[in-house]
Specification:
20 helices, two-stranded antiparallel ribbon, globular, five-stranded mixed β-sheet
Length: 509
Amino acid sequence: MTYFSRFYTISSLLIGVLIVVYLLPIWLFDYFPTQDGVSHVYNSQIITKYKNPTYQFQDYYDINWFPFPNWLSHFSLAVLMFIFKPLTAEKVFLSLYVILFPLAICYFLNAVQPGRDSLVILSFTFIFNYLLLMGFYNFAVSVPLFFLALGFWWKHRDALTIKRIVLLNLLIIIIYFAHLISYAFILFSIALLSVVYFRQNLKQILITGCAVLPAALLLLIYLPTSDLLAGEPPEIELGRIGGLLKNIVGMRVLVAYSEHQAWIAYTVFAFLLFLSIWTFWQNRKTSITPQIGQDAFLILFAVFFGLYLILPNSIGPGGWVNDRLAILAMLLIFACFKLSDNLRWRQVFTGVVTVLVLVNIVYVGILCKNLNRELDAFNAFVDKVEKNSVILPLQFEPSGESLRVGIFVNAANYYCLDNGCINLGNYEVQFDYFPIRFKPDFETPIDEKEWVQTVHWRAEKIDLCDYADNVDYLLLWGTPNKEKVAEEIDRCYTLISSEGRLKLFRGTR
């Protein structure tokens, strides 16, 4: 028993059990309800089956192999699809994310100051955050990778051997292929922390800069070809500060499916506020100067939080900037917290946090179950769609029972999995940070660069009758919000099946 105790503690066993519990919403149901997730699955399958002659992907799509950010989920899912069915591959990918998240936070916190496993347990409440449930898989997985890389650098900052430099650059390169924001901020974080920590040692600051330079050069490869620099420079928006502070107090990044999740989110903020007050009181009570790690990470958190308050929500084609920074900042502050040395205090704190984490996952599971019923209704006609067909999806009830996540926005991709269908609502084709493109000679429903947005949100701008000979099936969810749309559908398409909010029409192609 003494031998085995070297490899586990009660806390590590509890973390392991919670990881298993947090995997259940992914595996208990047919679908993991997100907005963009199934789009990533579909486009990853295009990559996997692109050379398969039984599909017609090569007739419609080109693949952009440029080394841009956002490749990680597509590459991972494409590889997994050589072994698993698409939706199973998605479950495996999400499971790896769920497993990695608390382990990365644990590694990060132990690199700063060991013995704070209760904070690792609290971090579970951030796993099923709003951005993950929006289907932003690349950013979601970049969060644990960010803290893994930051913890690795902090742990070895005084002794960066060649092997460690190679591993650090490898981690940063993986983050680059996950998401540009996390990549930019891991470089920024290492730079700022090195200046704070080595502030009296210019040589060590330069060594740190040279150590991460190879990975930093990737930014010079991507930016010149990116749409990120094509538009107007981002403007600081001070008028939004009040609303952004309110979002932090309400922890809106933890509210996605239901407004009732706000109660859990407020409780998480209460814990963070309690830990902040406790840490301040402990430092003042002992009259001890905070450790260099605590001091440095407090500065880093303050910078992240300041950027969260002043940056716009969109920079170039990328959006949700404030939410992304909120997640990184709220997890960064964990490094600043102190826990009591009193065993009873720690046991009570751990117990209360564990209850919160379990309540959170039970409620997420219930919401996933309810949303799966809606997705079952949406997918009722999947078997009626022939292989290699062209589908035009029009949805007028994007969220259903979901509060902030439009689970039906990209749900037409379910109709395209495993049968080679072409989805005219494939939003990824219009952005330079996704690998799939329609061929240059493809006839789009409307002559606009972001024409897929028109398909999703402004169908009345499309001449549906004129485009009917390009479409095999029109998939309608909900009631059209414009009389013109309903009239053109009835006049130029043939109804095949109808059930509740779902209707399937035949085009004239």
